[in-house]
Amino acid sequence: MASLKDETHWRRLVEECFRREAGVQAPLSDPAQDLIETGVLDSMGWVSFLRALESASGLSELGARLTERIPSFESIFQVFSEAKADSPAVGAKFSEARHAATRAVILRSSSAVVGSRTIPSDEIDRAFGMPEGKLRLRAGIESLAYAHESENELTLGVRAAEQALHVAACGAPELDWIIATSETHRNYPSLSAQLHSQLLARETCGALDVGGACLGLLNGLAVAQGLIVSGQARTIAVITSDVHSRFFQPGRVAGEFGGLFGDGASAFLLSAKHGPTPPDAYALGEFFFGCAGQYAAAIRVSSAPDGTLDVHFDGEALSRAAITRMEKVILDVELRSGLLRSSAEGLATHQPNPRLVSLLAKQLGLSPGKFPSVARTFGNLGSSTCGVALDAILESARRREADHRGPIFLASLGPGLLFGGGWLIPA
Amino acid sequence: MTRLLITEITRMGPAFCVIGLQREKDKIRSVRPVSATANSWMHFPYHRGDVLRCDLAPFSGSKPHIEDRVSTRSFEKESAVPEPEVVTYLRKAEIASSLEDLFGCVLHENKTGSGLFAKPVEARRSVCGTVSQNLRLELCANELRATLALRSGEVLRDLPVVDRDWRDFFEAAVVISRGANRLARLERFLNSQFQSKVLSCPHHFVRLGLTRPYHDLCWLMLDTLIPLPKHDWLEEF
């Protein structure tokens, strides 16, 4: 039964990847046909098709295994079955483990907070010495959420975490790990350690900081999933918190860059699925990650010797990279999960700015309403953008009948250009 | 009469594409001799480093292949230049260290698969040199592909390798007569000796090119990887 299921899965991946390369109308030829010799694909198209298939199937050595074989569908299916037979990487055990992992972890509750000061974007334009209306007209940002002077990464993170724990009626001592991510907290003790102390977690609860900037939430969720599936933990809080307003200040960075960012935090409580599932819970699907180095130069932030920030920000290149790569990640989520993006309850994605979100929605043929409006009212919240968006989608899903809830797509990017995607399904 | 230092001999299918360097006053620039009837040559018995005498006529080739010139008589070998010296000249020709400077335009990612492309109307040339910080070659389903990191930190992935000598070398490495485990041995070579032989070579240099427009896109490829492979290396793995 398992192998039949695998075969159907592989066949679907092969067909979809082939049609992406050869065109949606391209007929699937005789499996034994040499795709290059018969002109169905040229050699570049063949490699491109295989790379897409490697990415979708997780079989990274597909291309290498096809050397000295006829470029045909039959060869691909042969490689899949050989790989399954002799490599644990795609073998039945791995498939089963992966399948188990995708439903073994549930997201019990979530919460999001933003900086308590709401600043109209015109005011930010003035502060950065930009023409009034620039952020609104060029980026689509109406206002930004800025932290009050009494707020910082820790206070926002604690607030989000306490709310998430409260919603799930879960005490902090239940936590086995606190996983924190922030692109602005650069102090020691680290954010996870400070959160651990403030939340009064058990001494034996682990505290871990993960990086990735705007990709941080997905990194954190993937690590948490791994810890729970491996049996190392049962309950984990994943917390994001970013306070850009103290970091990207006028005089330190250009307004075209610094003016895009706001402050916020989010928290998610994850547990092993055991016993009855809470009615509103979502199960974690798979996550995948990578780094598209061709975009490495689009954004770089480092500390200059004089204490200022050295920001290299090629807005145009970054926008292009963000749209292209996000689209690719979302298409990969669709391909890997077998879930249609049109069926998604919503997409919790990175939101560099609202204009790019609209453009992405258009490229994907989706209603902009599938993307919660985060950047428009709060600004780009770094690692918390995805978190605040995810919380908003979960909140709206809770208001719907369980049978009508759809999956949630996750996709984000970080400088590098790091990318990652994943999905959640109603538990 | 033109003197042309041959720097690129690329092979795609049965045909060869050739590029050489031509000195024009203080400048050294790339020139691609083409025949009056085709962009490529079915027979090209010369080597990189050969200095050829030829007659080249201006030719309004389509963008971005502005280097095209029609060869109006047969080539005649005049002399040859050693590999390190070829690189000295290549460094004086078109060169860039970042993605956008390579062809004077934005390079786009293939959304559905692999590879990078330029739009013909945007690209300002079709060949450029660079020094790679790191480089890896691999065989992907019989196709030779390169991934390289530029000095800017940007990474170019999955470029088709069309360098005639490197393609010949790889084909020779996997011929059946070389015995068992040919692919595994080749892979070992690429993961070990390749680093010391190619990347540590003081005159290591790479030339990248753009394909002719295909469905209105010009795809990036690795035209030349210097040092060129030596036949003796086949004895080492």
Plain-language structure description:
The complex is a heterodimer of chains A (427) and B (237). Chain A is 41% helix and 20% strand. In chain A, strands 5-4-6-7-1-8-13-12-11 form a 9-stranded mixed sheet, with helices on both faces. A two-stranded antiparallel sheet of chain A has the order 2-3. In chain A, helix 1 packs antiparallel against helix 2, helix 8 packs across helix 9 and helix 12 packs across helix 13. Chain A is globular. With 427 residues, chain A is an alpha+beta fold. Chain A folds into 3 domains: 89 residues; 168 residues, Thiolase/Chalcone synthase (Peroxisomal Thiolase, Chain A, domain 1, 3-Layer(aba) Sandwich), CATH 3.40.47.10; 142 residues, Peroxisomal Thiolase, Chain A, domain 1. Chain B is α+β, with helices and mostly antiparallel strands. Chain B folds into 2 domains: 80 residues, OB fold (Dihydrolipoamide Acetyltransferase, E2P) (Beta Barrel), CATH 2.40.50; 147 residues. Chain B is 17% helix and 38% strand. The N and C termini of chain B lie far apart (45 Å). Chains A and B meet through helix 1, helix 2, helix 3 and helix 12 of A and strand 8, strand 11, strand 12 and strand 13 of B.
Q: Which percent band covers the strand fraction of chain A?
A: 15-25%
From the 3D structure, determine the CATH topology of the largest domain in chain A: Peroxisomal Thiolase, Chain A, domain 1
**Most extensive interface, residues per chain?**
A-B, 35 and 34 residues
Mean pLDDT of chain B: 94
**Radius of gyration of chain B from CA coordinates:** 17 Å
| Major sheet strand order of chain B | 5-6-3-2-1-4-7
* The first-level CATH class name of the largest domain in chain A: Alpha Beta
Which sequence of SSEs, written as H and E, runs from N to C of chain B?
EEEEEEEHHEEEEEEHHHEE
Helix content of chain B: 10-25%
Catalogue the unreliable spans of chain A.
none
Largest sheet of chain A: 9 strands, mixed
